[in-house]
Amino acid sequence: MARQQIAGKVVAITGGARGIGKATAEEFLANGATVAIGDLDVELAEKTAVELAARPGARVIGLPLDVTDRASFANFLDEAESQLGGLDVLVNNAGIMPTGLFTDEADAMTDRMIDINLRGVLTGSKLACRRFARKGSGTIVNIASLAGMTAEAGIATYCGTKHAVVGFTEALRREQHGSGVNVTAVLPGIVRTELSAGANLPGWAENLTTVDPEDVARTVVTAVTRNKGRLTVPASLTATIKIMSLLPERARYGFARVTKLDHAFSDADLAQRAKYHHRLAGDAK
Ligand SMILES: NC(=O)c1ccc[n+]([C@@H]2O[C@H](COP(=O)([O-])OP(=O)(O)OC[C@H]3O[C@@H](n4cnc5c(N)ncnc54)[C@H](O)[C@@H]3O)[C@@H](O)[C@H]2O)c1
Q1: Which of 9, 150, 179, 282 could crosslink 33 through cysteines, CB 3.0-4.6 Å?
Q2: At 203, is the pLDDT very low, low, confident or very high (cuts 50, 70, 90)?
Q3: pLDDT confidence of 89, banded at 50, 70, 90?
Q4: Rounded Cα distance, 63 and 116, in Å
């Protein structure tokens, strides 16, 4: 069923060289779409495209992209369309999540998180919406996060950007209602990628929230075929978020303290996070 709806579609994925973006590219290819992967790490984007192209019949290209640069984003979409055809789906996936206390965070990193996680999503959504308006159809999937509905110490700016993405996505969805352009937010819990390495979660919470990139990828494809406003991964998180939001603040704090959830990111394992933080430092140069 999904294959019938996805086959032949042209899909652009930001931050697609690794992690959730790469798995999403693979899932769209498996359903017969053609895919353009854009990433700041262009070498890895090209390598990933070659790797994914090994699947029989797969058509996938790796392109340079910096989502913080409007011209780069427009070039990415232009190049994807000139090589693959008119765009049908944009997945705004690129994002970063350094951990640590807000007061210790360098101003440049705060700005960078806003530029990538929020401004990049706004830029991509506007560029794609204008293209989709010309043909009267298209889908934008914004990868938000559970952190777009909850609030955790140690990732304050990240939470701020993801809350903004959730609100923006819903508002744009309403604005585009009836236009043929669908806008969806996908909210993963913790996903096993470098970005979340070292999160210090108690075992039960890990079981409740942690998934693989492939689980998110399947949900992104579902977001396109079912046109839902918001989807969590795992799906059971929707009920958890609802229940938590009904609790009074004191109960939520008490729950977080007892379960040690309030230290998951502020006390993350720094040795396990070193590789990721080192990559972010390299990207910023
Ligand atoms: N991993 C998790 O636990 C988790 C949970 C919820 C939401 N998310 C979200 O999912 C998305 C993907 O995360 P991931 O875990 O796959 O991360 P990742 O670090 O594995 O991959 C992110 C990719 O984005 C690219 N990127 C970074 N800055 C960019 C820029 N300016 N322009 C273009 N590309 C850029 C990176 O080079 C990298 O290849 C992010 O938006 C993240 O916030 C992740």
Answers
A1: 9
A2: confident
A3: very high
A4: 17
**From the CA of 43, how far away is ligand 1's center (Å)?**
16
Compute the distance from residue 254 Cα to the ligand 1 centre, in Å. Answer: 31
Q: Check which CATH number belongs to the domain holding 206 and give it.
A: 3.40.50.720
Confidence at 201, pLDDT banded by 50, 70, 90: confident
Residue 1 has what pLDDT?
66
158 classed as catalytic: yes
**Is 143 a pocket residue for ligand 1 (Cβ < 6 Å)?**
yes
CB-CB contact of 276 with 216 (8 Å):
no
CA of 116 to the centre of ligand 1 (A): 9
Mean pLDDT, residues 55-80: 97
As for how many domains the chain has, the answer is: 1
CB of residue 237 inside a 6 A radius of ligand 1: no
Question: Looking at ligand 1, which residue's alpha carbon is closest to its atom 41?
Answer: 95
Does the beta carbon of 193 sit less than 6 angstroms from any atom of ligand 1? yes
Predicted TM-score (pTM) of this structure: 0.97
Evaluate if residue 78 carries a pLDDT over 80.
Answer: yes
- To the nearest 10 degrees (0 to 180), the angle between helices 42-52 and 19-30 is 30
Whether 62 is in the pocket of ligand 1, judged by its Cβ within 6 Å, is no
Angle, vertex CA 232, rays to CA 58 and CA 62, nearest 5: 25
Name the catalytic one among 28, 73, 76, 158: 158
Residues contacting residue 86 through CB under 8 Å, at least 6 positions apart: 10, 131, 135
Tracing tokens 């304050």 back to the chain, one arrives at 156
Least confident of 125-134, 167-176, 195-204, 208-217: 195-204
